[in-house]
Specification:
By secondary structure, this protein is of the alpha/beta class. It is about 40% helix and about 10% strand. It contains 15 helices and ten strands. The protein is globular.
């Protein structure tokens, strides 16, 4: 059961503030969430999970990838225990920014195998990121790149999340170009896919996706293509951080197609829904808040909407902080949460992205995680926060 908030008067540490002062911060919130799913869910919820780097590998993190495979799969087991699905190798904060296609395919292969052993839910990202944008000369190049990755994922028994393509963003001039690519690719998939519409706040190289910078026209194009291929589409993940656009699109989709919210600013209200429908979830923040997300979703399924909002609502300020601009660096906060909560013993990231956020950012993350009751072991989290502060020359 979820316990009420309790003060932890014995735990405190010194945290930096934006005005260059230091405050003695006393931890204020403690909530215990179940380690496994409690009851059935009435929403499908995926976590876009992170990859655990190997901190002892003799590599150059900006140039090559070293993965701790045991810890990486163990984290997926943690997510599956909570009744959430895994969205594998499609996290744009690492894929294409440190996690290359060969490593992604190995990750997909390992994750799909682990999921099959326990009958768990996993979909995997297929895109065109092995095709350098400067080498993409035609739409046929884009199609062939999609086909190569789709074939590889399907060969290992995986389901597809069709990722947005930087190469297509470069070459696609109008709605017809996008329809040509998506129609050809979707006609070949074995099972219905999840299509990802990723905003340029996550990846500036995707500016003008769907052939226009006008988001209203872009949505018209996306809806027409998706509804025209409804038999091949399980759902759509929208990552625009604009709740009204997601709601508008949700209402325009073919009734067979699910909406998976990718809105890490407004997910609680979008999942709860309204009289005309609701969104399922495919969220990066569910990596960091998986126990709370699982418990909140179980309350929603039990008809306890107030309990759902009581648990999930306080996580939203943390998510908005982690995903603040430049949003493409959000994974730093997600991995920092995994470190604070004991899922890995170090704060080292693929691509060296542990340096992508400031110490002030991490200090505020600690405050917000505590206030939402998301520090699973406050004593451990406090010790680890002190270690990171000390590494930056701050007396914690």
């Amino acid at each position: 059961m979820n316990k009420p908030v309790q003060p932890i008067s014995s735990l405190s540490l010194k945290l930096p503030k934006a005005d260059r002062s230091v405050e003695t911060y006393r931890l204020a919130a403690s909530r215990t969430f179940p380690a496994k799913l409690e009851g059935p869910l009435n929403r499908i919820a995926f976590s876009a999970v992170h990859t655990v780097a190997d901190p002892f590998a003799d590599n150059d993190p900006w140039l090559s990838v070293a993965v701790d495979w045991d810890k990486t799969i163990a984290f997926r087991e943690h997510v599956w225990d909570l009744g959430l699905g895994v969205a594998e190798a499609m996290d744009t904060a690492q894929r294409g920014m440190g996690l290359d296609w060969p490593t992604s395919l190995e990750l997909i292969t390992r994750s799909v195998g682990a999921a099959k052993r326990r009958n768990a839910l996993v979909f995997s990202g297929a895109g065109t990121d092995h095709l350098a944008v400067e080498d993409a000369r035609s739409l046929d190049d884009v199609v062939r790149a999609y086909e190569e990755q789709i074939s590889a994922v399907e060969k290992v028994g995986g389901r597809i999340i069709l990722m947005a393509s930087r190469a297509l963003a470069k070459l696609g001039r109008n709605a017809d170009d996008y329809a040509r690519v998506y129609d050809r690719v979707l006609s070949q998939v074995r099972e219905p896919v999840i299509i990802h519409w990723l905003g340029d706040m996550f990846d500036p190289a995707l500016t003008g996706y769907w052939g226009t910078k006008d988001l209203d026209k872009a949505m018209d194009t996306a809806v027409a293509i998706i509804n025209g291929n409804a038999a091949k589409v399980d759902g759509v993940k929208v990552s625009l951080l604009d709740k009204q656009r997601e709601i508008d699109m949700r209402r325009r989709l073919d009734k067979r197609i699910r909406m998976y919210t990718g809105d890490d600013f407004n997910y609680a209200e979008l999942i709860a829904g309204d009289e005309q429908g609701f969104s399922h979830a495919l969220l990066g923040i569910f990596d960091a808040i998986a126990p709370a997300a699982s418990y909140a979703l179980s309350r929603l399924a039990a008809g306890d909407e107030a309990g759902f909002h009581d648990v999930l609502g306080p996580t939203v300020p943390l998510s908005r902080h982690i995903f603040k601009a430049p949003t493409r660096f959000y994974k730093t906060g997600v991995v920092f949460m995994a470190y604070l909560n004991g899922h890995q013993d170090h704060f080292t990231m693929v691509g060296g992205q542990e340096s992508a956020r400031s110490m002030l950012h991490l200090a505020e993350l600690f405050r917000l995680a505590d206030q939402a009751g998301l520090l699973a072991n406050p004593e451990l989290a406090t010790r680890r926060m002190r270690t990171v502060l000390a590494s930056h020359g701050l007396d914690a």
